[in-house]
Amino acid sequence: MCLAIPGKIVEFVPGQTQLGTVEVTGVRRKVDLGLLQDDMPMIGDWVLIHVGFAMTKISEQDAMEQMHLLHMLGETEQAIEEVRGYGLEERGEHMNGSPRLS
Amino acid sequence: MRYVDEFRDPELITRASEEIYRLADPARHYRIMEVCGGHTHAIYRFGLKDVLPSNIELIHGPGCPVCVLPMGRIDDGLAVARNANVIFAAFGDMMRVPGAHGSPLEHKARGTDVRIVYSPADALQIARRNRDRHVMFFAIGFETTAPSTALTLMRAKAEGIANFSVFCNHVTIIPAIRAILDSPDMRLDAFIGPGHVSTVIGCRPYEWIARNEGKPVVTSGFEPLDLLQSIVMLLRQLQAGEARVENQYKRVVPWEGNRAALKAMAEVFQLRPYFEWRGLGFISQSALKIRDEYAEWDAEQRFPIPGTRVTDPKAAQCGEVLKGVLKPAQCKLFGNECTPEHPIGALMVSSEGSCAAYYNYEHRKAVAMVTSISSVA
Ligand code: SF4
User: Fold this and answer.
1) Distance B359 CA to ligand 1 centre (A)
2) How many angstroms is it from B348 CA to the middle of ligand 1?
C-alpha cells in the first residue's frame, strides 16, 4: 500500500467538486482530489493516487515510469485491482474483488 | 551483476554502481538505513545488494505500517468489531495480520462483518449505504495515508454521517527515526529518506538528522536507478564529511511537502502523548489521535476499548528486525515456524515487511539454488 498508482484525470464529477474520474490502464474510477485543492489538476493531468486520494501531480513521463516500476515490482495487477475496488461509484454495492494481501 | 540486464537502463545502472564502488572507502563499513518499507521491497525485488560493494550494508527501517502496529491494537479493533451491528473495514494488507485471537480474516470466517476497502473513502461510502449499521474504519499508515483519513473524517462531519467512525492507528515517521538513533545498539551512517511520506511532509522535517546527528539524508524514488543515485549522493556527502538533506525524488517530492494534506491532518488529528510501536516500545508524540471536535467519529471514544497488551511470542524477534539490529534470516522462527503462508509476525505478512521481502526473494532464490545444485550432483 506504500506505492502510489499513476492515473490520468479524464473527467470531473458534476456537483461534487472534490471528486475526479481517473483512468488507470483503461479502468475508470472516482478518486478524491481534496489533497490537491491548492493546485487542482485539470483534465488530462496525471496524478499519483494513494488509497483513493490523488496525492500529487506528476508529468506524463513520470506516470509512465511509475507504471513501469509497479510492473517491475510485480504489483501491476494489485494496483489495477485496487483501483477497480475504489467504491465511490453510484451503481451497485461495493465490489470487493479478492483481498489485496500483499 | 546478473540482474543488471533486467533494468530499463542497464548502462546507467552499471555506471551508478561503478560510481558507488569508486566512492566507497574500502577501509570503512557503511550502514545505510532505508526508512520506508516500499524501498525495502524494491531493494530485495531488484537484488540491489548484488550491485553494491560488500561494505555497504542496507539496514531496513521501521517504515512498514502494518509491521509496527502492536498486536494489542488489532485485538482492540476486533473487539469493537464484535459489537452487534458493527462493520469492520480495513485495507487488504491488514487482513492476515495476526492478533492474539486471530487475524481479521479469521474473525470474518467466524462471522464478524469484516470488509476489505481500498480507501477510507470507501469505508465512508459503506456507511452512507448502510445507515442502520455502524462502520468502523481501522486506520493505519504513516503521513502518506493519514491525510486521506483526515479528509474522510472531514467529509463525514460535513455530511453529518453518524454511523461512521475511525479507529486511529496513524503514526508519524520522525519520532521513529529518533528512537532508532537513540537506541544504543544501533550505529548508522546515513538514511535513504522515504519517498511518498515526503510528498506530504516535505524534506524539512529531516533536517535535524543532518544538523544534530550529523547524518546525511536523501529522500529517494523507488526505481533501482533512484536508489543507487541516492546511495551515490549519500556517499558523496560522507566522503566530503558533510551532512545535509538532499532530495533525489524531486519529480514527486516538493521540498515543502503538501500544504493541503498537512492542513487536513492538523484539522482532524493531534499528537498522542505516547504510542506503543512493535519492537520499538513506547515512543512519545509518535502517533495521531482524533481531536475532540471529531470525537463523535472516534471509535476509541464511542466504544469501550479493552486496551489489550500482548507480548510477542518469545522466540519471535520482530523487534530486533524492525530496528535493523537483526537481519530477517537471523530470527529463529524465520522460514520454519514463520513463513508468508503462516506468518507469526506482521513483518512476514506485508510485502513491505522485511521478513516477507527477504523470504520471497532471497530465501526462495537460495532454496532454488540449493535444489538445482543438488539435482546436478
Ligand atoms: S521471521 Fe517472523 S517472527 Fe521472526 S522477525 Fe520475521 S516476522 Fe517476526
Assistant:
1) 10
2) 6
